[in-house]
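Here is one chain, start to finish.
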Amino acid sequence: MRVGVLTGGGDCPGLNAVIRAVVRKGVQEYGHEFVGFRDGWRGPLEGRSIRLDIPAVRGILPRGGTILGSSRTNPLKEEDGIRRIKDTLARQRVGALITIGGEDTLGVAARLSDEYGVPCVGVPKTIDNDLSATDYTFGFDTAVGIATEAIDRLHTTAESHMRVLVVEVMGRHAGWIALHSGLAGGANVILIPEQRFDIEQVCAWVTSRFRASYAPIVVVAEGAMPRDGDAVLKDGSLDSFGHVRLSGVGEWLAKEIERRTGNEARTTVLGHVQRGGTPSAFDRWLATRFGLHAIDAVHEGDFGTMVALRGTDIVRVPIAEATAQLKTVDPELYTEVGVFFG
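Its structure:
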């Protein structure tokens, strides 16, 4: 069989580990051939592809990003998008497609598989860890590690100048990165999208920290919102899947804290540094296992499924189940860490 592989959405540490595992096992054990589609769904839309064989995937395990390139192209919004994808797969004799991505990329794969008969197997990828049906997504551990290291470093400069440092992290509408990195980094306030925050309470925590002669660190997820108000955005632009581009709450929060408390406040927006660079050991391990099980699913003809981590086992679930709703932070878990606020 000839198998297609694509990586869609934001780049993510561990993507190359998946590609490597798929190709290595697919060639060595099953005798499959592979073609890699360039730049997410844009590849099959425009017929842009490269050959994937064992020499092509040597040495890519520790590399960040993706050797196939990525994009947020939405084929469902392109003229004749479905027909063009099916024509490309037929022309290149591709009998199955492994789609590595998050909510949007896998959402397209689910529709292609369920409604249009395109044989797809999904692999969950997002630093946000917000895909339901899997305990963890690869890329998340690396992002948390990067954010935690940044928070560790910011403690010393905050204390040297006795100022508030607000750290804005990614996560969109899920607070997993903020919660994990904030707790691991010893943040004094953690704000997540699942729980609207009271700016007066935030300022009270900040003031309490200064009374103890320590400078506070506030970690805020990019999708966090004040109790009285809407999301704070730099602009209201949308991507091709209709998602608003987040960021801006960190800067707004620092200005409000400074205005209300009189303490100097600065903002650090970690941005894309969280998703760049070499993947952690855990993400290499998880991504590799996902790749091995994804090619098994293809070989067995178990299409319309996504590989997922449950405990220490890799299982298969319907792609539609994994994209039906976001996995968000449980309120009880957030309450649990509240003892460290202030």
